[in-house]
Amino acid sequence: MKSIELHVPNAIENLTSAEQDRLLRTALRAAARQRAHELARERREALTHIRHYERKYGSTLAQFERKKLSGLDTAQAHEDYNDWFFWGTVLARAESAGAALLKLETVQ
Prior knowledge:
By secondary structure, the chain is mainly alpha-helical. Helices cover 75% and strands 0% of the residues. It has helices at residues 10-13, 17-57, 61-68, 75-102. The longest helix is centred in the middle third of the chain and has 41 residues, at 17-57.
């Protein structure tokens, strides 16, 4: 387990070691649960945008990049591509971070 240095208010510093540990574990559990919920919302939002572009262009992003992007000269297609790519990045980050949080016993 990795150790971190944490600067805490005097009130916490004055608690016993066991109480400090209990307080910090409780706070981390609550923060992990909250972040997992935020990541789930980000994932849902990203999927909504990605599905919109998949329906619009009838392909996945990878297929669009390989087969369609070079043939489209419109500014809108390139703007859509940039947005689509962005939402793919958001989805990947949210899924990766969410999977890491799910590994914590505190989130379950």
